[in-house]
Amino acid sequence: MTAVTTVTTVTTRTIEYRADGLTMIGHLALPAGADRRPAVLVGPEGVGLSDVERRRADALAELGYVALAFDLHGGRYLSDPEEMLARCLPLLADPDRMRGIGHAALDVLRAEPRTDPDRIAAVGYGTGGAIALELGRDGVDLRAIATVNGLTTGRPGETARIHCPVWAGVGSEDPIMPPAQRDAFTAEMQAAGVDWRLVVYGGALHAFHHPPVGHIVRPGVGFHPQHAQRAWRDVVDLLAECLPTTE
């Protein structure tokens, strides 16, 4: 546990923990005060944890949540698309590995004294969103799940173990999550009796929520500033509904 920093009313620190055979480096953001608070796991896109997710965790802490932005690659950010795919495609094909990464981060979040362990939600983007869904399919007691660009399907029957609302967002022009994938995802949610919502953001590509980066990205990836703001508001609204900061 290192690098404690206080910015306005939010205190942040990096936390090291083990998952997937790696030493992960997460970013924990704490709201003002000393009382127990509802908490949110924040999962990154396949490239890995960056300042984008750290700022989101900080923003959630400003709203009154304990927030942990978790790591995928042992402190690395995979800017090379081929290296990212080589790491993420086997991971996305292995629900047990995804669950292991998610549970390790969840254990860190629950161990934080400021966290109310009975009031936790998971918000994820891309691979991080897939991990959030797998925690739900594993029967974890979550208040809400939000996944952006991560409309993955699971093993037969396990989605019935999700007992919280699921919100999903995707760009209409996302070639990585095309209409067939959306349909499979929503059919799975519906068949399992999940309280689900899907928002399709018109004209948006994959990772439309992520500001431009200074390296090569996969085809079909692009920032859409208006929809990025809308998706963030939708996530915050979901949390306000399912995980209010006051009981």
TrEMBL record:
Checking InterPro entries in the record gives: AB_hydrolase_fold (IPR029058), Dienelactn_hydro (IPR002925), FrsA_esterase (IPR050261)
Please provide, alphabetically and separated by semicolons, the GO molecular function terms listed in this UniProt record. Answer: hydrolase activity
Source organism superkingdom: Bacteria
Keywords in alphabetical order: Hydrolase
Q: Which Pfam families match?
A: DLH (PF01738)
Q: Does the keyword Ribosomal protein apply?
A: no
Domain spans labelled Dienelactone hydrolase = 26-241
Family (UniProt): Belongs to the AB hydrolase superfamily.
Q: What is this protein called?
A: Dienelactone hydrolase
Gene source species: Streptomyces capoamus
